Amino acid sequence: MTTATSGSTPNDGALRVGWVGLGDQGAPMARAIIQAGFELNIWVRRETSLAALEGLPYVRHATLSDLGMVSDIVGLCLREDSDIEDVLTTGGLLASLKPRDRSAGLRFLSR
């Protein structure tokens, strides 16, 4: 199930980007993807994460499988390797990706 939020997301054949991780580092990257003109498809664990995209167009997906089915590429900006593994396997994202799709895991360490 998808829900269009905060306006329309025009897509005239452009790359459809999936995104998981709207924390301190992931949210600015997600906003940059939208501002560059790409359709952003998201999945969030917590409702409060959506505040990071307030006023911007995106499509929210209820499941990771739904996100994977509509995305051409998926970016993951998650804190722990175990979170990335959980999203990809237990969450069903990896199984839902088409053979030509790509996934990129981003992990940032701060001191």
Gist?
The protein has 111 residues and is α/β, with parallel strands linked by helices. It has helices spanning 26-35, 64-70, 81-90, 93-96; strands at residues 2-5, 16-20, 39-43, 58-61, 73-77, 102-106.
Which consecutive residue ranges, at least 5 long each, have pLDDT under 50? 1-9
Number of strands: 6
The order of strands across the largest sheet is 1-4-3-2-5-6
Estimate the global geometry from the Cα principal axes: globular
Percent helix? 25-40%
Q: Which percent range describes the beta-strand content?
A: 25-35%
Q: What order do the helices and strands follow?
A: EEHEEHEHHE
Termini distance? 39 Å
Q: How is the biggest beta sheet arranged?
A: 6 strands, mixed
Radius of gyration: 13 Å
In DSSP terms (H or I, runs of 4 or more residues), the helix count works out at 4
Structural class of the helix and strand makeup? alpha/beta
Task: Quote the average pLDDT.
Answer: 83
In words, what does this structure look like?
It is a single chain. The protein is α/β, with parallel strands linked by helices and 111 residues long. Helix content is 28%, strand content 25%. The protein has 4 helices and 6 strands. It has helices at residues 26-35, 64-70, 81-90, 93-96, and strands at 2-5, 16-20, 39-43, 58-61, 73-77, 102-106. A 6-stranded mixed β-sheet has the order 1-4-3-2-5-6. The longest helix has 10 residues, at 26-35. Mean pLDDT is 83; it is low at 1-9.
